[in-house]
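Minutes, project check-in
Item: structure for the 191-residue chain
Input as provided by the requester:
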Amino acid sequence: AVMTGRVFKEFSRQEHVVKQKPWPRDWPTWVCVDPHTRKKSVALWAGATKDDELVVLAEAEADSIEELGHLINKIEGRHKFNVVSRSIDNSGSSNNWSGTTAVDILRNKCGLKFQAVSQEEKNVDESLYRIKQLLRPDKMNDGTMKPRLFFMEHCVNIITEMEMYGWKNNNNPEKQGVNEKVKKVNDDHID
């Protein structure tokens, strides 16, 4: 079957978007950054609950990686997140036009340490499958069925992307073969 339409058909605002509330300081939080030079760089915070639910807690975007680094410090200072890991897309370890990397800028100018995800570690198909699994209802400890992935209501950019992220159209699968690739649009926060 050819994949068409939305990638995350399981996602619904009613089921997966939750009211903003303070995040417990002792619960783990991860930060991911997708740096760009021609469009906004993006940061996303996700945390795990004691029930193994994953919650997207905050998002930020900025025109430069240095500006994003200062926003990261501001957001983490305000929320007092228990950050256990910071990851950056593998492009963050590539030299920009001035010969520096996003990892270097975040460390040297913003005091933030990020680990670049290698190209080998970046498996888009596996990541899409895992997100889809977390969006589907799962049996909880108390026997109820509910998803394990949620988004704080103020994370409007990733919520919109969850609704817009789509598969590439394949107009002629008989000649071109089945194309199960995602469109590289509406993915700045998801990526």
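Outcome recorded: The CA atoms of residues 171 and 190 lie 26 Å apart.
No further action items on this chain.
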